[in-house]
């Protein structure tokens, strides 16, 4: 008889059979496929940061956030240890999320400019946020094996949402996205598109569909506090995404 723990480690392999985003998100939250990530996310949730000592951490894999009909998909890197790993929602409860949601609000894609908890009433319009890796990794650095293990979730997200535009936050998201698209039948141009802030690549599917991938520096404090990524820079990327998605 298969144990619940072993079934939980098999969940990425079942992603392709998910019939809806709700079903996919349910698979994500139950996943225990990567021992190092499971151990780290649960250790962080148990030890906590002193400023959040009275809170109950999520401590599980974090699903995507946003409607299944979104025309724009935003792909980050992985949940933050004391951000999404605490709150249970992508980019919620940390400085990176503050920067991202403020930008989405300015673009008319979010109902409010901040994101502090999973029940704060924030809603997204025509945009969904996900990540190549759904568990918080030590030092914010998932291994290639962890990335590849988690990739079926991103592949199925792409198949179910069918976005017109994908905004990748950083080179990790860019590279994983292209590999994910290729794995589900999309034709990646040659030479292979290279990540840069403001980079733009059109990807075609044999069935006639196409989507545009846009590059944006990650909204990490390392980038936003140093001025490498400024509000006008991300605003320009999001306005381009809206135009390509025909959102006016």
UniProtKB/TrEMBL annotation:
<dbReference type="GO" id="GO:0046872">
    <property type="term" value="F:metal ion binding"/>
</dbReference>
<keyword id="KW-0004">4Fe-4S</keyword>
<dbReference type="Pfam" id="PF03167">
    <property type="entry name" value="UDG"/>
</dbReference>
<dbReference type="InterPro" id="IPR036895">
    <property type="entry name" value="Uracil-DNA_glycosylase-like_sf"/>
</dbReference>
<keyword id="KW-0234">DNA repair</keyword>
<dbReference type="GO" id="GO:0004844">
    <property type="term" value="F:uracil DNA N-glycosylase activity"/>
</dbReference>
<keyword id="KW-0378">Hydrolase</keyword>
<keyword id="KW-0408">Iron</keyword>
<dbReference type="InterPro" id="IPR044147">
    <property type="entry name" value="UdgB-like"/>
</dbReference>
<feature type="domain" description="Uracil-DNA glycosylase-like">
    <location>
        <begin position="63"/>
        <end position="238"/>
    </location>
</feature>
<keyword id="KW-0411">Iron-sulfur</keyword>
<dbReference type="GO" id="GO:0006284">
    <property type="term" value="P:base-excision repair"/>
</dbReference>
<protein>
    <recommendedName>
        <fullName>Type-5 uracil-DNA glycosylase</fullName>
    </recommendedName>
</protein>
<dbReference type="InterPro" id="IPR051536">
    <property type="entry name" value="UDG_Type-4/5"/>
</dbReference>
<keyword id="KW-0227">DNA damage</keyword>
<comment type="similarity">
    <text>Belongs to the uracil-DNA glycosylase (UDG) superfamily. Type 5 (UDGb) family.</text>
</comment>
<dbReference type="GO" id="GO:0051539">
    <property type="term" value="F:4 iron, 4 sulfur cluster binding"/>
</dbReference>
<dbReference type="GO" id="GO:0033958">
    <property type="term" value="F:DNA-deoxyinosine glycosylase activity"/>
</dbReference>
<dbReference type="InterPro" id="IPR005122">
    <property type="entry name" value="Uracil-DNA_glycosylase-like"/>
</dbReference>
<keyword id="KW-0479">Metal-binding</keyword>
């Amino acid at each position: 008889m298969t144990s619940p723990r072993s079934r939980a480690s098999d969940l990425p392999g079942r992603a392709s059979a998910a019939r809806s985003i709700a079903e996919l998100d349910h698979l994500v939250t139950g996943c225990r496929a990567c021992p190092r990530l499971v151990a780290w996310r649960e250790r962080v949730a148990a030890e906590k940061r002193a400023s959040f000592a009275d809170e109950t951490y999520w401590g599980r894999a974090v699903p995507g956030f946003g409607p299944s009909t979104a025309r724009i998909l935003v792909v980050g890197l992985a949940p933050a240890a004391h951000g999404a790993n605490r709150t249970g929602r992508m980019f919620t409860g940390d400085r990176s999320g503050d920067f991202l949601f403020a930008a989405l609000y300015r673009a008319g894609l979010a109902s409010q400019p901040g994101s502090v908890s999973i029940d704060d009433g924030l809603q997204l319009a025509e945009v969904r946020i996900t990540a190549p890796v759904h568990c918080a990794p030590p030092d914010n650095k998932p291994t290639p094996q962890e990335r590849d293990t988690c990739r079926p979730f991103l592949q199925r997200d792409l198949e179910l949402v069918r976005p017109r535009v994908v905004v990748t936050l950083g080179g990790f998201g860019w590279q994983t996205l292209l590999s994910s698209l290729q794995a589900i039948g999309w034709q990646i141009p040659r030479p292979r598109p290279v990540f840069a802030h403001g980079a733009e690549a059109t990807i075609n599917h044999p069935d006639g569909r196409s989507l545009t991938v846009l590059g944006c520096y990650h909204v990490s404090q390392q980038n936003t506090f140093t001025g490498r990524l400024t509000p006008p820079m991300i605003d320009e990327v999001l306005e381009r995404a809206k135009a390509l998605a025909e959102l006016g």
